[in-house]
Amino acid sequence: MILKAKERGNAPQLARYLLAMRDNDHVELHEVRGFISDDLVEALGEADAIARGTRCQKYLFSMSFNPPQGANASIEDFEKAIEQVEAKLGLEGQPRAIAFHEKDGRRHAHAVWSRIDNERMRAINLPHFKIKLRDVSRQLYLKHGWAMPRGLEDRSLRDPFTFTREEWQQAQRAGLDAKELKAGLLPVSWTAG
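Request: output the structure for the sequence above.
Response:
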């Protein structure tokens, strides 16, 4: 399973994204746990309000869980993967929400946790989370018998033309093809400056 994550703030924007039908055929709010409200907008607003009592700007930990193309992961598979990540990163018991998005018959999941420890009013530190998530991702590929991406098998085999989400979004806003940008196929005037 491809795992992408980041620490972030801006709870209202994240709640809108998780509930948005714009880019999805189907959206399901699967779980809201550990918040007073079971409404996602209100729950993440609660995380925002609690974080204001700290200096933490990136008080949420947001993840996407994407099975490989052609693979069917059950809801139970997603739940187990989320619990595995939670244990690996030390987020057990933290307030969280899970949403499922489906587009073109392909389901993926989003999970978001509050990083604020309510008792200590401090953010939970998540050192080396990308390395830890890479380990979980490998385990999930092996467990399910999915063909592992070459770059996950060996970091030196990563595709140099792969672009980040930020690069893709920037190209989309500009009406350009991110793959062409990364490959340097656009005229020099587009890449200069």
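The beta strands are 2-8, 26-33, 60-66, 96-103, 106-114, 116-117, 122-123.
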